[in-house]
Design goal:
Length: about 270
């Protein structure tokens, strides 16, 4: 998972303030490394037996203490890390074709020449909700300290204004895409993009004469359910549809549109199947 915070001018962000604020939201946060162009943060699970106490360095405004990896850390498989890279180069181009929610995305991004890139290189051993919480705490703190004009989420191919992120923790992490058939406008394909970065299957549904807005809402609810409970939708076990008497039957299929990945394919049933 990664997100680019996009700026028209070179952003100025204090690494100490960033670390302190993240630690207030996630008390187990430790600074592993701080350089002139990047930070490496580690997030330990909260320990109920060891409640959070503010670090004296935080209170006094001193640089945070570094906690480099030890020999014992080499054998752990539960690391949750974030890197924060300052002044990264924007990509040459971005696919904005599925940024329906923000008509001004292209005009805003073209003004942005600088980025802060926040990525999560390690964390697959943690549950998805914990990973999303840690990412959002890091992103929200960086946005509060150095307000960007836009955010770009490469894995979900989504550009969003910073204010849109308050709507839901999965906003940005997951994009709901809509594609219409060139030969039959009544046939649509709706899918999620982004769950695969959490080690979860994305969801797709090809249908005829179903309300795409309601179907988009359903897929987002399923994305939230998978993030909370894990990969629990089993092939052949129906899930609720758009009405009380409708059920969708899931199966595992290759994605119908790129990127290539295995997804949960929802069969909308007779009358709605293309």
């Amino acid at each position: 998972m990664a997100v680019d915070l996009c700026y028209p001018d070179l952003p100025d962000i204090d690494p100490r303030a960033l670390t302190v604020r993240i630690r207030s939201a996630l008390p187990g946060t430790m600074l592993v490394w701080a350089g002139p162009t990047n930070l490496l943060l580690r997030h330990e699970r909260a320990d109920p037996a060891n409640p959070y106490r503010p670090d004296p360095a935080d209170i006094l405004g001193l640089p945070p203490e570094h906690h480099p990896f030890t020999e014992a850390d080499r054998y752990r498989d539960d690391h949750l890390l974030h890197t924060v890279a300052f002044g990264t180069e924007p990509p040459a181009e971005r696919d904005l074709s599925q940024c329906w929610a923000w008509p001004d995305a292209s005009a805003t991004l073209v003004r942005c020449r600088y980025q802060i890139t926040i990525s999560q290189p390690l964390g697959r051993s943690r549950d998805s909700a914990e990973r999303v919480q840690a990412l959002r705490a890091t992103v929200d703190t960086a946005i509060a300290l150095a307000r960007p004009l836009a955010t770009w989420w490469p894995a979900s191919q989504q550009a969003l204004p910073p204010g849109a992120l308050v709507t839901h923790p999965l906003t940005g992490v997951v994009n709901i895409r809509l594609f219409r058939s060139m030969s039959d406008p009544e046939v649509t394909l709706t899918d999620t993009l982004g769950l695969y970065t959490l080690g979860l299957p994305d969801v797709q549904c090809q249908s005829r004469n179903l309300d795409p807005n309601r179907l988009s809402d359903l897929l987002f609810e399923l994305a939230e359910y998978l993030c909370k409970h894990g990969d629990v939708l089993r092939p052949g076990s129906p899930v609720p549809g758009l009405s009380t008497d409708q059920q969708f039957v899931p199966s595992r299929q290759p994605a119908m549109v790129p990127p290539h990945r295995m997804v949960i394919d929802l069969d909308p049933g007779p009358g709605y199947r293309p």
